[in-house]
Amino acid sequence: MPNVRGDGMRGLAVFISDIRNCKSKEAEVKRINKELANIRSKFKGDKTLDGYQKKKYVCKLLFIFLLGHDIDFGHMEAVNLLSSNKYSEKQVGYLFISVLISADSELMRLIIQSIKTDLASRNPIFVNLALQCIANIGSKEMAEAFQQDIPRLLVSGDAIDLVKQSAALCLLRLLRAAPDIAPSGEWTSRIVHLLNDQNMGVVTAACSLIEALVKKNPAEYKACVSLAVSRLSRIVSSPYNDLQDYTYYFVPAPWLSVKLLRLLENYPPSDDAGVRSRLNECLESIFTKVSEPPKSKKVQHSNAKNAVLFEAISLIIHMDSDPALLIRACSQLGQFLQHRETNMRYLALECMCLLATSEISHDAVKKHQETVVNALKTERDVSVRQRAIDLLYAMCDKSNAEEIVQEMLAYLESADYSIREEMVLKIAILAEKYASDYSWYVDVILNLIRIAGDYVSEEVWYRVIQIVINRDDVQGYAAKTVFEALQAPACHENMVKVGGYILGEFGNLIAGDPRSSSQVQFDLLYSKYPLCSVNTRCLLLSTFMKFINLFPEIKTTIQDMLQNDTNIRNADAELQQRTVEYLQLSNIASADILATVLEEMPAFPERESSILAKLKKKKELPDNVESPSKEHRHLPQAIVNSADGASSPERNGGPSNYGSASMDLLGLNSPTNDGMASTNNGINSNGYAPQPQAPASDMSALFDVFGSPTQPNGGDFGNSASSPPGQKSGVQLVSESNIKKFLFRNSGIVFENEAIQIGVKSQFTPTQAIGQIELYYGNKSTMPLTNFTVQVHNTEPNALLIQAQDIGPVIQISAQVKQQFNLRCVTVFSQTPTVRISFSMNNFPMTIEAPIPVFINKFLEGAAMDGETFFARWKKLSLPAQEAQEQFFAKYPIDAASTQEKLTSIGFAVLPNIDPNPENFVAAGIIYTGSTQVGCLLRLEPRRQDSKYRLTVRTSNEGVSKRLASLLKDEF
Amino acid sequence: MIQFLLLFSRQGKLRLQKWYVATEEKQKKKLSRELINVVLQRKPKMCSFLEWKDMKIVYKRYASLYFCCAVESTDNELLILEIIHRYVELLDKYFGSVCELDIIFNFEKAYFILDEFILGGEVQETSKKNVLKAVSAQDVMQEDEAVTSALEEFGLV
């Protein structure tokens, strides 16, 4: 046991040793429970507990809490310690409170009372302790209670420096919690003058406070500019040994320097010429020091020196007025680009991005293009490469766009998966922004699709179509190029979409050449057709319909194709409906009407590219997906958004994408704009094909053909809209494989059709073997859903208890009804329970049978352990029945970060540095059921050369091993 | 401003955590677990900075312990790195060549020292001497109290 300073607590040290000696997690939990029981009984029974003992037990509780266990008692005892007259007891009490008590605790009033007493103490150490506690909790309530006391301490003549320092930062923290308590009036000048304080520590602390106050009210605190400049100048010009302990590795007061520079960034360059030139001298001198030979070889020396330099550069960029300094900054950063330390290269790239935005230094930055491109190719750390991409993006202009885009495209082929989508967006933006020749732009986008089709989001390919439609000079070229691109035997589906759309509009421009005649174009597109997803096929159907208009000579070929069973009897309602409608249209409508209906798309209104918006959004995406209000402009709503909606183009076409950014791009705010196939319902308003707002005349032509489109059962084709044959009397089944995404998350869409959307949101507490699932039924149709009933089918009622909340029989138009299910896992279960949802819509009965997304892994909680423990347990579970193994092809690109994320979201604790092969993953967890606990170990071995995985699961329960392995198979 | 600070071992065991913005307990657990995984996966020669969520992470490994700060994206990375170093120096000076065990067994001291150095997510005192003076003033008070209570126990006062 190491030495303990101050007055050690022996009992605590013994307890910590005990915990460390525990061989397993179970033993540790056991030891902790024993201790908790002991402490509880001590607190309850023993009235004679002295201060020392109380302190010791509170400390133990704190330790247990910090190990990650919940603590639900002892708070009162900790609060009692605050009023002890012994410092050591008080201190532990305060520590417990800072770490463990939440701001809304009912004990807060007592705590505030104790703090008040200590703040008034004559002993500055007590005062300091109280201030630290206020700063650590920093709640609104605290802010209100102490808004008088703290500013008083801060400027008091009696308070010692240490107290002033704490008071400054304490006030800062309270300001963040309650901005309205900012002191003003007479306080202002007294606070500003803290910058002149003799004690550097006081200035350091006060500087942070002043910056926050300045942000709120720059005018009031303007006096701080000249004070800060002169303070900075004194620091920068002082010999390093003048500042004694405030010199850090031969750099005078780096923290204070940086804080002062940052404070100055809140103001424009000073009006006072004297102040301005003084600041310039400081900045020059900071540059000079960096170029002098170092006073120490220690990295701390150069880090501190460069930290000040980077802050100075940031101020220079902010002022954006002195060309000499800007150019000097640029050449200094240029040197750093080749620094031997990765950290410096990273920062140089990052900082240069800012320089590139200044008109003055933009050209100077461009001189480093080659170095940056080189960084992109040679840096080993992806975060550095990311910076290089950002910088290339920032330094790009008309003069170097072709080169930079070319380099980025070249890098895209080998880029990390994690940054591909962002790169694609950036390339697309640059290509559009700086294209002098739009055929170059078309080439770039098609290259993007070829190289990284999976990462090309809808925004990108919609945009290229918009641009082609709006510029007649590029249409012929575009048609020719997509035609050539489609010749490739395996081309990305996004290529088929773009190609299909463009040929549908402009195929006639290249049909004169017998090598790309109408028949050849049709054959080419149709050869891709069977392999495409439903929404791409829908798009292609529209293309073929347009072909009937463009190329009357192949009308019968196309009609034959439509009449083919795979189309006219397709199980997918949307496909079938389109086919039927298009076929009818081609039969009924005269050539004139056809020409009107299928007229070339009108130009899109010019607007800012929404790819930019997407890029901005992407940065903040991951945490926002669950916020319910976002992106829900369209009714009906589900409470959840499909989280993958924004990231993967394949999944993007799915009906859950109501109101995503892609719609905005095309101005499709109302489903009626969506063209002909969707007259009766809104289900394909989600971007099967980009459609500009059709002029009113087109719409009326459409209505003439179909009669009244508003009554689902009225017109010739209405029937197929709401109840396609083949689904008429049957039950719509959602298979388990469709909901396997819920292995990894707890919310999303379970099912959706034109009538109803079923969403789910759930939470599980594995350690208690319980969970809640909420299903949300949203009525999307134009009629109320009546006779609404939900029946639970649970094949293992003894293993999994499910209790369903009752719900009403009607769901109104656009309404959403929530049904809660309480679950309890009694023992291991292997079947997924289902719900059978029945209702009538306009007297038409519908039934949907869908699994409830609860798998055994929902009761799995990660268990961290070291390598030794892991291997010991692995060996223990060596019976053949305890192991299950699967081999499968990688379904997604093999990427360590996402695999890790998946394993974690399944519930496992991923254990790093255990498997001798760093590519492999090992993970562990425990499944908690009411009756047993099942320890689960997993090993996942990716094999890059043939993109396969081998998955091995070992658990103490045969069923669990099999079930987990089969569930996780094919999910990576 | 520092958002939070984590100390954890190479095995991913959390040794110390300090949060400078109000965060729910559940969220704390989630964030630290995620972040520890991210940092442990990085290779030795990689850059000490990375973007994570809407924050910047600055970390450095000392022997078996990782020191990891989550800061705002506008903070000065290099200086945060030196904040970490100064904290290590403080611990080292206080414990006399500090090791992971010192921090495990004296976790409360590690917190007390941190509170003297950083408050509300900002550096309060950069002088090593002054921080250690404040901490040892605490120790002196504790020891005095210990002596007094021992004397009381034996009826000597």
Automatic annotation (TrEMBL), chain A:
Gene3D superfamilies referenced in this protein's UniProt entry, alphabetically: 2.60.40.1230, Leucine-rich Repeat Variant, TATA-Binding Protein
Subcellular location(s) per record: Membrane, Coated pit
Membrane topology summary: Peripheral membrane protein
Pfam families named among the record's database cross-references: Adaptin_N (PF01602), Alpha_adaptin_C (PF02296), Alpha_adaptinC2 (PF02883)
SMART domains named among the record's database cross-references: Alpha_adaptinC2
Residue ranges, compositional bias (Polar residues): 669-688, 708-731
Residues covered by region (Disordered): 642-731
UniProt domain Clathrin adaptor alpha/beta/gamma-adaptin appendage Ig-like subdomain: residue ranges: 740-845
Gene Ontology CC: AP-2 adaptor complex
Signal peptide: none
Binding site for a 1,2-diacyl-sn-glycero-3-phospho-(1D-myo-inositol-3,4,5-trisphosphate): R10, G11, K42, Y52, K56, Y57, V58, C59, K60
GO MF entry, a single one: clathrin adaptor activity
Source taxon at top rank: Eukaryota
Keywords, sorted A to Z: Coated pit, Endocytosis, Membrane, Protein transport, Transport
Coiled coil: none
Main location: membrane
GO biological process: clathrin-dependent endocytosis; intracellular protein transport
Family statement: Belongs to the adaptor complexes large subunit family.
Protein name per its UniProtKB record: AP-2 complex subunit alpha
Gene that this sequence comes from: RvY_09400-1
TrEMBL record, chain B:
UniProt signal peptide: none
Localization per record: Cytoplasmic vesicle membrane; Golgi apparatus; Membrane, Clathrin-coated pit
Sorted UniProt keywords: Coated pit, Cytoplasmic vesicle, Golgi apparatus, Membrane, Protein transport, Transport
PROSITE patterns: CLAT_ADAPTOR_S
One annotated Gene Ontology cellular component of this protein: AP-1 adaptor complex
GO MF entries: clathrin adaptor activity
Family statement drawn from the similarity comment of this UniProt entry: Belongs to the adaptor complexes small subunit family.
Name of the protein in its database record: AP complex subunit sigma
Organism: Ramazzottius varieornatus
Lineage start: Eukaryota, Metazoa, Ecdysozoa, Tardigrada, Eutardigrada
Gene that specifies this protein: RvY_13066
